[in-house]
Structures are given as C-alpha cells and as structure tokens.
C-alpha cells in the first residue's frame, strides 16, 4: 500500500516539521505540499524536506482561500504521479492516530486503512482537540497534554470530521477536507480506524496570525458561501475590533476548569503526541527541524 499525504500550509513554522515527521514515521510514503505564501520560515522548512526526497513542494501565492481547488489538485497529483493507493488531505495542525493506540509505528496508518472494506473509498476521521494545561509552561508540545473529548466549536457544535480517500485521478476534495467525491471512491466506510489529534490553538501569537491569515482570505473570496469558515470569519471580526486577545483568554481553561473537565471526562490527560515527537528525534528525517518544534524555536 502506498499512502500520499497532501498539506496546504501558511505560516506554520512552529508545527509543520512535527506534522511531516509524525506522518512519515506512521506509514505515509510521500507528501505533496502547497505553501500559500508563508513568511515565517515555513517555506524554508518544507524546502528541506523536498531536498530530503520525501516531499514535493508547490507554491500558491493566492490570498483568496481557494482551498478546495488547491487540495483537489494535490490529491489528483498523488493519484496520477505518485502511485498512491490512499490519499490523506491534511492540515499542519492535524496528527492522524489509530484509535486509542499508545504506540505508533511505520505500520500504523497502512494497517488501519488495510482493514477498510474494499467496497469503500472514503473514511471519516473524528478530531479531538489538544488544549493547554495551565499548570505547564513552555512551547505547545510541552503544554498541550489535555485532550478535549467534546471538542466543541464556538457555537457549541462538535467540530467536523475529516475524510481520507482511496486515490482517484478524478477526485474532488471539499472545502476543509471534510468530503471527497469521485467516480472511483465507492461508499463511505462504516469503520473509523483513524482519529485525529488536533492542535489548532498553540498560543495567542500563533492563533492571532492564523485568524488574520484565514479571515482576510475568506473576506477576499466572494465565491464561497458565507457560512463556510464561519468560525474564522467571526474571529476575524473580533480581531478587527480589537477583541480577539480578550476572547482568546476567556477560552483558555484555568485550573478550576481543568479539574472540572477531568472529573466529568470532557478532558483527559493525553501526552501521546508530546511523547511521540520526543521519541522520534533519533530517527527523524531532519532531527534539528523537529527539535526546533519541541523547543519552540
């Protein structure tokens, strides 16, 4: 089985090396990445993985969030040029994980996908957010050791599932990677052998940059339904009004909220990602790039 991952990234220097390293070590064979005009060093990190022979790098300067079109092009490339059997369309803040497994090795993702019914071409993946423990300090890999089992959006609804799919040169990937359609894909699998550990909020500076980038891009795209990306649109308005930092602070769990969440089961202590990233250092493709993530550099 050959598995190719697509990544669409913009200003993700604090995490993208961890994303690439984790998935390569979990069974992804190759990455097709599109850098959407990053200015924080993300481009240079991706170029190093390209030079290492594990990644193909595209550049997309557009500022109008044509995400579906850009990811669809990469997914088709994965099928046509890279011999993929399965394609994972990922974001830099998403780490695929086989269920509740504590140990992840090179067979993790291939074994999970090999178990999917052969009649099925798409697999849903449920996302759980990792959030910061206020009792810990340091960069996000050190602090984000709490898993939010509810993972609710600002409107109180569960964040949407993502899908991966069998390779199809005619596939169309929906906005946000929440869907994939194509003549060769068949049915949606009943199984959900893979989940996602999601790290969307890694501190105020990163979150503010993310909102500014995504919010301005959504505002520039008049072709998308206004309901698409509503969470980024709403946070962007808070940013423009000077209210984002205050809102962000209110969203962070304090010690009392963590205690209540742990007691209720809505929060679970989960250091699997932190532990894995540290353990991967000796065998990483580019160890110093991963070390920079762990150190917050």
Tell me what the structure shows.
The chain is α/β, with parallel strands linked by helices and 297 residues long. It has two domains: 3-202 and 253-295, Spore Coat Polysaccharide Biosynthesis Protein SpsA, Chain A, CATH 3.90.550; 203-252, no CATH class. The chain has helices at residues 16-25, 42-51, 67-80, 108-114, 140-143, 204-220, 230-240, 244-251, 255-264, 272-279, 287-295, and strands spanning 3-9, 30-35, 55-59, 86-90, 94-97, 120-131, 146-148, 162-166, 172-173, 180-181, 187-188, 195-198, 267-269. The strands form two sheets. Strands 1, 2, 3, 4, 5, 6, 7, 8, 11, 12 and 13 form an eleven-stranded mixed β-sheet that branches. It has a two-stranded antiparallel ribbon with strand order 9-10. Helix 1 links the parallel strand 1 (3-9) and strand 2. Helix 6 packs across helix 7 (230-240). The protein is globular, with a radius of gyration of 18 Å. The chain starts with a strand and ends with a helix.
CATH architecture of the largest domain: Alpha-Beta Complex
- The CA-CA distance between the termini, in Å, is 35 Å
**Biggest sheet record:** 11 strands, mixed
CATH fold description of the largest domain: Spore Coat Polysaccharide Biosynthesis Protein SpsA, Chain A
* Number of beta strands: 13
Tell me the count of domains. Answer: 2
Query: Helix tally?
Result: 11
Round the Cα radius of gyration to an integer and report it.
18 Å
For the record, the CATH class of the largest domain is Alpha Beta
Q: Average pLDDT across residues?
A: 96
Q: How much of the polypeptide forms β-strand, as a percent range?
A: 15-25%
Shape: globular
Low-pLDDT sequence parts: none
**Series of secondary-structure elements, N-terminal to C-terminal:** EHEHEHEEHEHEEEEEEHHHHEHH
Helicity range: 25-40%
- Helix-strand makeup class: alpha/beta
